Amino acid sequence: MNLNVLGFFQEGAAGHAAEATSAAEAAPEPPAELLFHLFGLSWLPVTNSILTAWVVIAILVLFAFFSTRNMKLLPSGFQNLWELIVELWVGIAENTMGRRRGRRFMPLVATAFLFILFSNWFGTLPIGYFLVRNSEGHQVPLFRSSDSDLNVTAAMAITMIALAEFFELKSLGLFGYLKGLFLPNPLRWLEIFTRPLSLAFRLFGNIFAGEVLLATMLGVAPFLLFVFIAIELFVGVIQALIFSMLSLVFLSIATVHEEAHAHEGEHESVESEMATASHGQPF
To answer: Model confidence over 62-79: pLDDT tens digits?
Structure first.
């Protein structure tokens, strides 16, 4: 009887070990899986994360189209939702960098927010279990969250930082920009390299960890999966907001000199108008 009891516990432990193993095997790997090569060219691979990015872009384009197709004075439906998103980000951008610069950079930052948010939510859905056979004959998931691929998050981070550096160069001029690279803070170079790294790895790490968690819980405790899905939906919003807000701050810092020049120009214009009103002609 003792042997039977021992065998029962051994079978139970083996069953739990098998569940854990299957859950671990179902969890995604860091590199995105290859689906096919575009136009048959080996140097144009298309992974499941890139396919998901294309689907998300198509969803956002259709959403924008149907939201603005029949604009009304009193918005309703999709137009109401679209205007809510736009007004929200206009308010955030203006509070961060002022009215002029805020309205200038709001479309870029809001687009990044929507793309990251929809990508995160798309990856939370149980889409990773639609398996297809790729061009190499392996069964791989058809879809995968774009932000769980470091290549995608790194590309977005580098783009944002490159734009920030470009606008800083434009506002300071070539001499002022080069001067800022060396004086008074030589750690400016470190800042240039660490900003995209922090943006890319923060977003990738959180989203990839969430996908691993969902895949593991699906194999271990599927009856609790809805709790973790709700958590990951919330995390998706937070990560999209963090990336967008940091990008907005970096753009604001890069163009702060431009804002100072604009205020100086406005002040000179006011003084000129006052002089004209007082003497009939400018000094």
So the answer is: 988 988 888 888 777 788
